[in-house]
Design a protein that fits this description.
By secondary structure, this protein is an alpha/beta fold. Helices cover about 40% and strands about 15% of the residues. The strands form 4 sheets. The chain has an 8-stranded mixed beta sheet. Strands 15-14-11-10-9-8-17 form a 7-stranded mixed beta sheet, with helices on one face.
């Protein structure tokens, strides 16, 4: 057996945060050395950060990335390490993986297939590297090989598939196998989406089997740049067997997954394959050779481990909770904010947001421990205050410390929930809001804003020369209540240096059922990427079961028993969201067909007529037509939403996923076609 210990590191990086990015890389290298790893794979563009956007086109960014590469090199003595960075060559920018060994740069493999769909815009900044081409790059006055290259390091051949390279049909791994590569490294920046982890698992396993190689996959972790969430989940496989899987949604800044692979075993697996045809022509032309001495390794078993929550029946609910909780935690600390403020109405959306923020604290404390959590949050917050003459920074030495708050105290310190009543508010929502806030342990405040609402109504009446009333001014009277609630919570957030969190969901965004500068107010909109039907199921699950390690929140029963309502009309009106719009399950089905699948109104009608036979054709016609009209009229609202988190391929965020004109023809001809079809029947 020729045993080789390989490692995949997941890193919580931040675009252009050079010092912290370097610190995480060095920590991963130290951990690899301590665990006797010989070959270490780090994530894609880990030096600069993946989400630099148009800053990639700054010459200063290119120079700084190379400077950091030079600063990291000495730490790689005795190791083979891949480091991701942008590299400018011949007036074109490339996404590269630099392989270094023993403190020396061996060369730069450039990404062949760029991610240009969904939330990815790589072709805006980078050029794809052509197959089979090799060039020379000048880096700090030295010449290094660049391009479609692989490496022979101490007799073990190493090649790359950089993220998207592994997702395409003609992935580079097949060529690397024909060239005799033993280990394929995959440095990735693969964002989280529901069920995506299983797809990654399959291509890692299948790549290792089909190519008869050891395959090492390293991903980013956390909320790197604001919208995309990276779940980590390092993977190591050999010859079709998964040897090791790292945890997902970790709150740690650095994680290392290792495994022993047998180079002789994968070589013989390739030799036994009747379909294997080695490359002879100029197979060695793009091979970069370097001496390296690998340490002798003793055999040790490795296990493919899953977290308990990944094996249960509620994987989507668990993934949603953990993804948004991690994203909120990172957003808090990377934005240097001192907490969150939520306008807690007693309804589903604001209750969901509050639970997710509390979960960020609960998961963080459970994984990091109270002391480390305190250092990650309190030190940042108090450090800013100290520079402004406030409290002293959080002490580094345990002996100097005051007692560290527990998880519930941290929730109270970091999350403020505000119930804002008007004359149209009821005791049910007030009681539900208070119950959820108390069960979570938040700071809970009540404001009565009705007097402010009446003042605005009086101003409007004066301007119009008549009293405003519900018969003629329904929408205006609803909206002013929602808008009056915004200034007070903004004020509170500003005073406390906290993030105001908007509470609108994706279903509302689709049809504009939200008041701009009202319930959409906030610096971040964490549930704008998820539909209301799922949120209601998730809240029922949270009430009855809850996430692994947190458990149920029984107080949500007061929320779940209600019909969703904006509670903006007088109580006698019996206002509910679904009466204003349509049933949420149907709304979400129409949205998926119309927006995700790009179906015409007639095609959407035919689909929902099959899936929702309980409704008449006339009723479905009215709802489908309502959806398309509201969708077109409210693109301007979606353009103004605060940043949201990406969780699936049904996102409506126009800045990262779903572009639509603000002004359009409104599907007039298509809707006429639909009406004619229904009326003929």
């Amino acid at each position: 057996m020729q045993l080789l210990k390989v490692g995949a590191a997941v890193l919580n990086q931040t675009p252009l945060a050079w010092d912290s990015n370097k610190s995480h890389i060095l920590a991963a290298i130290r951990a690899a050395r301590e665990q006797r790893v010989s070959v270490l794979c780090l994530p894609e563009l880990c030096i600069s950060g993946y989400g630099c956007e148009d800053a990639f086109l700054s010459p200063a960014v290119q120079r700084m990335a190379l400077t950091l590469l030079g600063e990291i090199l000495p730490a790689t003595q005795g190791l083979v390490v891949s480091l991701g960075l942008p590299l400018l060559h011949n007036n074109a920018l490339y996404n590269t993986a630099c392989l270094v060994a023993d403190g020396r740069i061996l060369g730069f493999t450039a990404k062949r297939f760029l991610a240009g769909d969904g939330i990815h815009y790589e072709p805006r900044w980078f050029k794809p590297w052509p197959v089979g081409r090799r060039a020379s790059a000048i880096v700090q006055n030295q010449e290094y090989p660049l391009g479609d290259i692989y490496f022979d390091v101490g007799g073990i051949k190493i090649g790359f598939e950089i993220c998207e390279d592994a997702w395409v049909a003609n992935r580079p791994g097949s060529e690397l196998a024909r060239r005799g590569v033993d280990v394929i490294l995959n440095p990735s920046a693969s964002h989280f989406a529901f069920a995506k982890a299983e797809v990654r698992r399959r291509f890692v396993l299948e790549g290792s089997r089909a190519f008869a190689v050891s395959y090492v996959y390293a991903n980013l972790l956390g909320n790197e740049a604001g919208r995309a969430i990276y779940d980590g989940g390092a993977l190591i496989a050999t010859a079709g067997q998964l040897l090791a899987a790292g945890p997902r949604f970790s709150f740690a800044e650095v994680g290392l997954t290792t495994a022993l692979v047998d180079i002789d075993a994968t070589r013989m697996a390739r030799a036994r394959s009747g379909s294997f045809a080695p490359e002879f022509s100029d197979a060695e032309a793009n091979c970069i050779q370097s001496p390296f001495s690998y340490p002798t390794q003793e055999f040790e078993p490795t296990l493919d481990r899953h977290a308990a929550w990944e094996l249960g029946a509620s994987v989507k609910e668990e993934e949603f909770t953990r993804a948004i909780a991690l994203a909120l935690f990172d957003y808090l600390r990377k934005s240097r904010s001192r907490g969150f403020v939520v306008s807690l109405s007693g309804g589903a959306d604001s209750a969901a947001v509050s639970c997710l923020i509390a979960a960020a604290v609960q998961f963080g404390v459970a994984e990091l421990g109270l002391l480390e959590f305190a250092k990650r949050v309190e030190y940042i917050l108090q450090g800013d205050a100290a520079r402004e003459g406030g409290r002293a920074p959080f002490p580094h030495q345990a002996s100097e410390m005051e007692p560290v708050p527990d998880a519930r105290q941290w929730i109270h310190r970091l999350l403020t929930c505000v119930y804002q009543s008007t004359r149209n508010s009821g005791n049910v929502t007030r009681s539900a809001a208070r119950g959820v806030a108390e069960a979570l342990g938040t700071d809970f405040i009540e404001f009565d804003v009705d007097a402010l609402v009446q003042q605005y109504i009086a101003l409007g009446s004066q301007a119009e020369g008549r009293p405003l009333d519900w018969e003629t001014d329904d929408l205006a009277l609803q909206n002013i209540q929602a808008r009056v609630r915004a200034p007070s919570v903004w004020l509170l957030a500003n005073v406390r240096g906290a993030l105001l969190v908007a509470t609108s969901n994706r279903s509302e965004a689709a049809v504009g059922y939200a008041t701009m500068d009202g319930d959409t107010s906030g610096g971040i909109s964490p549930i704008a990427g998820i539909d209301k039907a799922f949120l209601r199921r998730w809240l029922a699950w949270y009430e009855a079961q809850g996430p692994e390690g947190i458990g149920p929140l029984v107080a949500l029963s007061a929320v779940n028993q209600q019909q969703p309502t904006a509670e903006l009309r007088p109580s006698a009106a019996g206002q509910t969201d679904e009466a204003d719009l349509m049933p949420y399950e149907l709304l979400d089905a129409i949205e998926r067909a119309a927006i995700r699948d790009k179906r015409s109104p007639l095609e959407v009608f035919k689909i929902v007529q099959v899936d929702f036979p309980q409704y008449s054709a006339a009723q479905l016609l009215a709802w489908v037509e309502r959806f398309f009209r509201l969708w077109c009229r409210n693109q301007w609202k979606r353009e103004r939403y605060a940043p949201s988190f990406h969780v699936d391929d049904e996102n409506l965020d126009p800045k990262t996923w779903c572009r639509f004109p603000i002004l359009s023809g409104g599907f007039e001809r298509e809707l006429a076609e639909l009406r004619a079809y229904v009326n003929k029947r």
